[in-house]
Amino acid sequence: MKIVPAREAAAAAELQLAAERQELFLLYQPKIDLVTGGLAGVEALLRWESPAFGLMKPSEFIPIAERSGAIDSLTDWGVRQVIRQWLDWREQGFKINIAYNISALTLRDVHFPDYLQRLCQIEGMPCEELTLEVTEGATQHAIRLLDTLTRFRIKGMSLALDDFGTGYSSLLQLRQLPYTELKIDRCFIRDVADDPEARLIVRSIIDLAHGLGLVATAEGVETEEMFEFLVDLGCDQAQGFLMARPMRAQDLAPWILNSQTHWREQCKRPALHACQLAVA
To answer: Which superkingdom heads the taxonomic lineage of this protein's source (predicted)?
Structure first.
């Protein structure tokens, strides 16, 4: 019998009641279209504000949820909130694609795509407005999940491979699995200003994504230098603290109204410094 550390056991017990106690919430981080400067969509980020353990990020509590069997209820809560938020933004006049990260354990259920499609249909959210993100570390098993991933695509949902470059995916998996988007991990993006090897890797990943017909999205963009470099290389989308930190749903509309002109101008501006970086 596996002995579970006392802290994890306590956290698992609290997590089972987190949704009921209204301790879970979502933050939203915008993604910028690097061609137009417009809003490409948002990523919904799950958070848990626990009275016992404080504010916890998914990297801390999702593994606990997976080991304790609470992951399915968390996923159900999350996707329902995403759908409701999409509808709320639509009422405000915004049509926004929302991305949400799905556990590899949830993807083992071949009926989950059907369930998610029914939820969208009942509430009135087009499946095309939903992107499911799969962390690259989960793709060592992704070939076995091919049926589930393919069902998502048949129903019109997009699939993003998250944290690319840090996990176990292979070029064969990229070719065989029905992804629509490749998200370049921040560990490569943060070094593009100083490290020629990082620049080469980022350029190669963008070219690879485009060669496979995928959208290339850069994560962790924090400086103008990074942004200009990505625009110059033809990266499709970017998200990071430079554009916006994760925010509450009610803060997104003001952000859109106040920032869209700025980012459209940034994408039109000649990226002279980025050109210098690209050949350095």
So the answer is: Bacteria
pLDDT band for position 126 (50/70/90)?
Answer: very high
- Predicted confidence band at 141 (pLDDT cuts at 50, 70, 90)? low
pLDDT at 272 over 50: no
Structural contact between residues 205 and 165, judged by C-beta atoms closer than 8 angstroms: yes
- Mean of the per-residue pLDDT values of the chain: 88
pLDDT of residue 273: 45
CATH topology of domain 23-279: TIM Barrel (3.20.20)
Domains of the chain, by residue range, sit at 23-279
